């Protein structure tokens, strides 16, 4: 909005926005300072920001040793990267066919993709659980990955992007003797890199943070992704000692928060462009 | 004559090309289509089918019981409690986070200073792992040593045990929900505001709209209509799926005061393993989400015709 410059308005604007920002940041700040404090300072119920006696080393050591924190992070990395790689492998060729090839059944497949977008991920959970149980894959990495290898949203997003790639580019590649598969991976994907990255951010954030599905299919610590790990940690620790628990929370949220701070525009793009899929 | 042969060859090669394209298309789209059925559309159909049976997970046999599960569900007080709690949760979080999101976005957009800083800060909770932040919020809500009650103590208010009190637990969870999703709305509204053409403000000024409120009422608000509808429905759908905070902080309690639809589905299906009954709850959940989505499609359609 365009308005006449008014120092009063500027002041009100900053005061209001800073008050809001303080509320948004408070949990992060309180979590971090608590992760530096010894138990007696935490339980003293005082409003002090910095610890009098630093206990950071002890808290973080406990977070890393009392529960297999590194294992949780590793599980998160393995699962999210496997999901994203397979999603791309499955969705990209399909998106290309839907965008650039003329074949019978194209409209039908696209209609089903749109139908799939409407279905929240919780809905197929019970039958998927039964299927994984029947093939004896419950409580494995495969159980965490398989249900998500198909991303209808990924297909939709990539199709929209591929539509904007000029046909001449594809014709030229065909004249050069490239196969359709080669066109997909060597022409289309590089041309659609921004969309691939946005989708990657969406996918990794969604699955790094997912709690519902791991809660259903995983019951051993060795396979727990970060959210499940933090829930285990909380069940053991809550009420006793908040220092290590807050240290654990800092460790779990750090990768995504740091990545967000490093690449804000891309993150916001990836997470809002794909905001359709709740 | 030479012409017809050439036309023939052309026709034949075109036919071959088409067949080849069909084959290529099948190779490219086939795996995705197969997986789409296997992992999404098939299981969704199966949930509907299961909801008409009495199957318990692991049981050797199952019976078709028609609408039996639905009859049981509609006669069950826990289900109604769960549905009501879910709707109350949606009714609190959606207007609060949408209105606050709009307000903060308007303030951020009003001047150019520190826009990036505010956007980053407000968006931060959206990226942070909700389960980890839920554990942090539980600590913030701690009755004696939590930040919330310590701050309330400064102004002389004795805060209670927010998450352990049936009268406040659902509101505490809603507060976490608003905190977590607010930044998402701010960013969507910022994008909406950026797309309002500048010259509309100039035109409005010529028409005598010179107060900020008049500019907002005559230009910003109508132009923001589609964004507002979009944000409302997206928020409603997301809020309807509330699960993480309930599962880790309250387990639906105390006294079922935070029992919500997905959590009821989870306990019935994966604690008691009553797959048929849990499927019926899932179908109700799906019906609500689909209704919201179709509502959005209709409203957006009408908006498009307006503008």
User: Whole-number average pLDDT of chain B?
Assistant: 86
The top-level CATH class of the largest domain in chain B is Mainly Alpha
- The CATH architecture category of chain A equals Orthogonal Bundle
- Number of domains in the coordinates of chain B? 2
Task: Describe, in plain words, how this protein is organized in 3D.
The complex is a heterodimer of chains A (278) and B (307). Chain A is globular and about 75 Å long. Chain A has 278 residues and is mainly alpha-helical. Chain A contains 15 helices and no strands. Chain A has one domain (65-273): Orthogonal Bundle (MetI-like fold). The model of chain A has no long low-confidence stretch (mean pLDDT 88). By secondary structure, chain B is mostly helical. Chain B has two domains: 1-50; 69-306, MetI-like (MetI-like fold, Orthogonal Bundle), CATH 1.10.3720.10. Chain B is flat and about 95 Å long. The model of chain B has no long low-confidence stretch (mean pLDDT 86). At the A-B interface, helix 1, helix 4, helix 5, helix 6 and helix 10 of A face helix 1, helix 3, helix 4, helix 5 and helix 6 of B.
What's the arrangement of secondary structure elements?
The complex is a heterodimer of chains A (about 280) and B (about 300).
Chain A: H1 7-34, H2 39-42, H3 56-65, H4 69-100, H5 106-118, H6 125-134, H7 141-145, H8 152-163, H9 167-175, H10 180-191, H11 193-209, H12 212-217, H13 226-237, H14 242-262, H15 264-273
Chain B: H1 2-50, H2 68-74, H3 77-110, H4 115-127, H5 130-140, H6 147-154, H7 169-194, H8 198-206, H9 212-240, H10 244-250, H11 261-270, H12 275-306
């Amino acid at each position: 909005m365009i308005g006449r410059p008014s120092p009063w308005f500027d002041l009100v604007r900053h005061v209001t926005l800073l008050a809001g920002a303080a509320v948004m940041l408070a949990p992060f700040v309180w979590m971090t300072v608590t992760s530096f404090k010894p138990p007696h300072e935490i339980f003293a119920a005082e409003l002090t920001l910095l610890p009098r006696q630093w206990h950071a080393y002890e808290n973080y050591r406990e977070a890393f040793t009392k529960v297999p924190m590194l294992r949780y992070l590793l599980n998160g990395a393995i699962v999210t990267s496997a999901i994203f790689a397979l999603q791309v492998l499955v969705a990209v060729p399909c998106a290309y066919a839907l965008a650039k090839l003329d074949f019978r059944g194209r409209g039908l497949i696209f209609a089903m993709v749109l139908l799939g977008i409407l279905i929240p991920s919780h809905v197929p959970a019970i039958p998927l659980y039964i299927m994984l149980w029947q093939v004896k894959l419950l409580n494995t990495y495969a159980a965490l990955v398989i249900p998500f290898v198909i991303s209808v949203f990924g297909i939709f997003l990539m199709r929209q992007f591929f539509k904007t790639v000029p046909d001449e580019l594809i014709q030229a590649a065909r004249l050069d003797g490239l196969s359709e598969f080669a066109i997909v991976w060597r022409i289309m994907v590089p041309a659609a890199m921004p969309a691939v990255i946005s989708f990657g951010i969406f996918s990794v954030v969604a699955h790094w943070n997912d709690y519902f599905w791991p809660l259903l299919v995983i019951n051993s610590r060795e396979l727990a992704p970060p959210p499940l790990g933090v829930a285990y940690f909380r069940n053991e620790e809550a009420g006793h000692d908040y220092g290590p628990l807050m240290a654990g929370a800092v460790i779990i949220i750090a990768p995504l928060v740091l990545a967000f701070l490093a690449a804000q525009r891309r993150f916001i793009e990836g997470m809002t462009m794909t905001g359709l899929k709740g | 004559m030479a012409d017809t042969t050439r036309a023939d060859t052309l026709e034949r090669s075109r036919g071959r090309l088409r067949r080849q394209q069909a084959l290529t298309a099948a190779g490219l789209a086939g795996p995705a289509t197969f997986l789409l059925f296997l992992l999404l559309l098939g299981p969704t159909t199966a949930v509907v089918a299961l909801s008409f049976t009495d199957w318990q997970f692991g049981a050797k046999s199952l019976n078709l019981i028609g609408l039996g599960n639905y009859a049981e569900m509609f006669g069950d007080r826990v289900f109604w409690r769960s549905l009501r709690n879910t709707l109350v949760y949606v009714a609190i979080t959606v207007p609060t986070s949408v209105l606050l999101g709009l307000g903060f976005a308007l303030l951020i957009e009003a001047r150019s200073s520190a826009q990036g800083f505010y956007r980053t800060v407000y968006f931060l909770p959206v990226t942070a792992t909700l389960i980890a932040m839920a554990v942090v919020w539980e600590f913030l809500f701690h009755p004696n040593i939590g930040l919330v009650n310590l701050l309330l103590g400064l102004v002389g208010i004795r805060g209670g045990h927010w998450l352990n009190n049936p009268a406040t637990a659902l509101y505490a969870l809603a507060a976490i929900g608003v905190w977590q999703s607010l930044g998402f709305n701010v960013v969507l509204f910022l994008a909406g505001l950026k797309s309002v053409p500048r010259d509309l403000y100039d035109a409005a000024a010529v028409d005598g709209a010179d107060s900020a409120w008049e500019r907002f009422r005559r230009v910003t608000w109508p132009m923001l209509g589609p964004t507002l509808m979009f944000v409302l429905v997206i928020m409603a759908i997301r809020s309807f799926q509330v699960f993480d905070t309930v599962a880790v902080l309250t387990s639906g309690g105390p006294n079922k005061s935070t029992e919500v639809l997905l959590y009821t589905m989870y306990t019935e299906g994966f604690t008691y393993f009553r797959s048929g009954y849990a499927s019926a709850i899932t179908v109700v959940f799906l019906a609500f989400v689909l209704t919201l989505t179709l509502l959005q499609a209709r409203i957006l359609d009408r908006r498009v015709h307006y503008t």
